[in-house]
Amino acid sequence: MKKKLAIDAMGGDFAPKSVVEGVKQAQAAFSDTEFILFGDEEKIRAYLSDETNITIVHTPDKIDSGEADPVKAIRKKKSASMVMAATAVKNGEADALISAGNTGALLASGIFVVGRIKQVDRPGLMSTMPTADGAGFDMLDLGANAENTARHLHNFAVLGSFYASNVRGIKSPRIGLLNNGSEASKGAPLQKEAYDLLSADTSINFIGNVEARDLLSGVADVVVTDGFTGNAVLKSIEGTASNLMKQLMTAINQGGLRAKLGALLMKKSLYSLKDSLDYEKAGGAVLFGLKAPVVKSHGSSNADAIFATIKQTHKMLETDVVGKLVQHYNAENGVAND
Amino acid sequence: MKKKLAIDAMGGDFAPKSVVEGVKQAQAAFSDTEFILFGDEEKIRAYLSDETNITIVHTPDKIDSGEADPVKAIRKKKSASMVMAATAVKNGEADALISAGNTGALLASGIFVVGRIKQVDRPGLMSTMPTADGAGFDMLDLGANAENTARHLHNFAVLGSFYASNVRGIKSPRIGLLNNGSEASKGAPLQKEAYDLLSADTSINFIGNVEARDLLSGVADVVVTDGFTGNAVLKSIEGTASNLMKQLMTAINQGGLRAKLGALLMKKSLYSLKDSLDYEKAGGAVLFGLKAPVVKSHGSSNADAIFATIKQTHKMLETDVVGKLVQHYNAENGVAND
Q1: Once rounded to an integer, what is the mean pLDDT over residues B135-163?
Q2: What is the interface pTM, i.e. ipTM, of the complex?
Q3: Do A262 and B258 touch (CB under 8 A)?
Q4: Of A231, A195, A238, nearest to A216 (Cα)?
Q5: Staple B219 to which of A231, B192, B213, B214, CB 3.0 to 4.6 Å?
């Protein structure tokens, strides 16, 4: 049976153009997949030539990126492209949801329309971030939750471990707890309690506390933290990287002819640095812990970034990571669970 | 009257050499200052030629950088260089304390030996961090506290505002609250409550929530956050910057002759980038809210970094920022204080 992806064609800064163009790359790459595009039929069709494996569901409305109250927006705009795509997943007409639109609205669509796996109190927003060695690491929660308990953090560890082993093919992924020092006694009560829960769970490979300073060196395969801290750390890393690249360009431009000639000679090296910082190549952010994959592509996604997100979602379906997760939780039913 | 600095000559990876050499730079720069060096007299004297304005207080013991329980260490090792330097400040024999030694022990020396300003529940650890435009911003708390209340965050804002206006000479410093979005309604209860306290205080220039992504672009002059998040953000920024510089060097080395030649031509530009990332030029981290300046220089400080920390501490004494802070709190006595 074909994999069916519900794609919000109207989400993101360059929609529907970049979304449709990303889908066309995926159409050429995956013959086992049907792409259901939700959005303005006419605008979508303008970028399509061959509609093999592509279905368009016309939606008269969309969620805006600047929606003041995203939760209210998805409740009111039942015929918005994102909401109808989520409803298709809920009704079993599609296997996964992809959008580059409003993050808050997608989180709400995921939780309230697609729905949580029963045993997962708080789904976590997770991204695979780049490391110097190219292996990358998964971090969650990146901000789906403003507050978390130690039990939520333990749940994030289980989710991250499942994702890293199934989707990224890492055997026994090293799980680290983000903390303000590496000693077991570190942190606020939240981290201390989480440390104990994680240490007691023999089903995961918990390696202890890790510090934010060591994340990009690949200190762990999965890094677990509360949504507030995760959001701050993600944005610090992104902000620092983009700021440094800007400063490097300024240094080159102000450095006169010598510097410019030097930069020209270094072009390939500088591009390889820029590439290694390219978060979009790694795909989107997964709201993990739901009954189906719900994946957020960056708002500024171009066609390549959309294709990367589709590839990632395709892998999630191919490996049936959500199905295995549900089995794992069902097997634990009746068994004491931390 | 001369300013008197109590300096832990045995703290840091390159002590006492780099400490004494930093003091010698300061000795040449500031004739109005007396430097009281605490540590192994013989080892200190080995690096000294001219002892004008320098006093050595021999201490037979020191706090190690790897002390498992720094609080216990400062209580037990009464004759350690750091503890004796702190005691000299407490007894009024010196006006400020500087150390590149064990951070936990210095925080404990500051709080338990030097002592808090009565109205400051929780002193904050604060650094001036570099921005692209060179202006920099102060952030606190960077980890003196694992947990903070909204009242602590409000106090950090007052402390940071005082420091930025007095020591850095910024008129009406823009105070931002680190949050997971810029809207007023963002964050966990801690941030929401802090937002209300900060908004209500007309004595500071509160500009609202700021995101970690925008810190290095200079979105605020002072950024206020709890110690756990502040520590994670600081380490994320440092880790990302050092990782990128390493990746840049790898890209150059793997780029062959062209890239190496290019890098040679770009040398000055690359150095200017490296310089702008150099946290040590901005001085040390201040444990602010104590009865006297207590400043932590980086553990790996060389002589230049020690000199930068001394210059910063000298400025704190020259501007009497701590005295003004005490006056501010005393003036508020009996007045309702958020």
Answers
A1: 95
A2: 0.89
A3: no
A4: A238
A5: B214
